[in-house]
Amino acid sequence: MFKNWKLFRRRNFLLGLGAFASTVFFDAATTRLTFYQKVQAFYNSKRSFSVVSNASLRQRAAVKGLIYGAFPSVDYYSTLSGDKQLQSTFIRQCGLIVGGFYWSGTQPSASTFNFTETDSFARFASKHGMLFRGHPLVWYNLIPEWLTNKFKDPRTSSKEIENILINHVSTIVKRYAGRIHSWDVVNEAIYTEDGRTDGLGRSQWLKFLGPDYIDLAFRVAAQADPKALLVYNETALESDNPQHEARRTAVLKLLERLKSRGVPIHAFGIQSHLWGNETPFSPKKLKKFLADVASLGLKILVSELDVADKELPKDIGVRDRIIASVYEDYLSVVLDEPAVIAVITWGLSDRHTWISDYAPRPDGAPVRPLPFDSNLKPKLAWNAMARAFDKAPKRTPKR
């Protein structure tokens, strides 16, 4: 799964160091120090990640009316089923688990669906009192060969593609009706770099069905399971730079259009694949964006949180402090928005993370982007998340 990392072109617009960048002061007296020495001195002297009690992230989130969950790994259920230690950590720490419903896996041929992995996820969630979340139903990426060929065939009609989408979404959603918390119905439809005035990416779905393919997917999903939380999920929105600003604007326009047309969309997922060394976010701009989303009557999920450490120092102590600071700074801003109902990390342990392949360190050191290390021991990132949950305003959970 995810062997071709070039497919993930949109996930290179990620967030950076957070509030730290505006705090460190570089003056002539400190020019002899390297940047990372300054980082180390700052975090050693100024930042504490102490926590109160041994409560799990699941428990801390629940106290505030929030959900904490995670995606096990890029290898679907096989990773989780073969790792008892990982299972026990998931059970204790997570109130939600994400199952991968990538089209290439769930419908490998035009006439065949494969639910072996996803059924296993559903059973695991049910057995351990966890919510179950599905990702994604409609995406431009990870399309099976049979559908790629259908897209390329000049004889293929728009009606054929419409029927394929309807059959795929309705078949999957009906199967898990009553067992699912939420669906990422459409994933990453925005790509402003393609130059369309509406900001939509020029996918095959757009080519054959126009912008209404998004409406169609949500309507079909709602008909198949009226009780599921239906989510639009998007990436590269967090940073304070022109690209992310343009994408935030396009996302809001899309959400406004869907709501104005009576499309049954209930929530928005902000992926939050962050970097530890890049452009900081603007708390003011991020808060406004989230408030604008909430004003449409939508809930918000932090849907795929992790922090890449590719360009950070090799020293684990320094690296972990920087990563932890990004987690706490970001979540402290995001969780101030009452519409945010969930925080989901894209992985739980450094043992299993897509960052190892997508953004490996040039020095060959293992990456450390998640709350637990490769031995499933909690890191400072865990502390940072715990602190953010503990400080978050309490809200009443709706779903």
Structure overview:
By secondary structure, the protein is an alpha/beta fold. The chain has a single domain (5-391), classed as Alpha-Beta Barrel (TIM Barrel). It has helices at residues 35-46, 57-63, 76-81, 84-93, 103-106, 116-127, 145-152, 158-175, 204-209, 212-224, 242-260, 283-294, 316-334, 355-358, 380-391, and strands at 67-70, 96-100, 131-135, 138-139, 182-187, 229-234, 267-270, 273-275, 299-308, 340-345. An eight-stranded parallel beta barrel has the order 1-2-3-5-6-7-9-10, surrounded by five helices. It is globular. The chain starts with 34 loop residues before the first helix and ends in an 8-residue tail after the last helix.
List keywords for this structure.
alpha/beta, 15 helices, 41% helix, 399 residues, eight-stranded parallel β-barrel, TIM Barrel
Average of pLDDT: 89
Q: Which range best describes the helical content: under 10%, 10-25%, 25-40%, 40-55%, 55-70% or over 70%?
A: 40-55%
Compute the gyration radius: what is it?
21 Å
| CATH homology superfamily | Glycosidases
Domains (count): 1
At the first level of CATH, the class is: Alpha Beta
Q: How does the overall form come out from the CA principal axes? A: globular
- Largest β-sheet summary: 8 strands, parallel, barrel
CATH architecture classification name: Alpha-Beta Barrel
Identify the strand order in the major beta sheet: 1-2-3-5-6-7-9-10
Q: How far apart, in Å, are the first and last alpha carbons?
A: 31 Å
Structural class: alpha/beta
CATH fold assignment: TIM Barrel
Task: Give, in order, the helices and strands.
Answer: HHEHHEHHEEHHEHHEHEEHEHEHH
Strand content: 5-15%
- Give the total of beta strands: 10
Please tally the helical runs, counting DSSP H or I stretches of 4 or more residues.
15
Uncertain ranges: 1-33
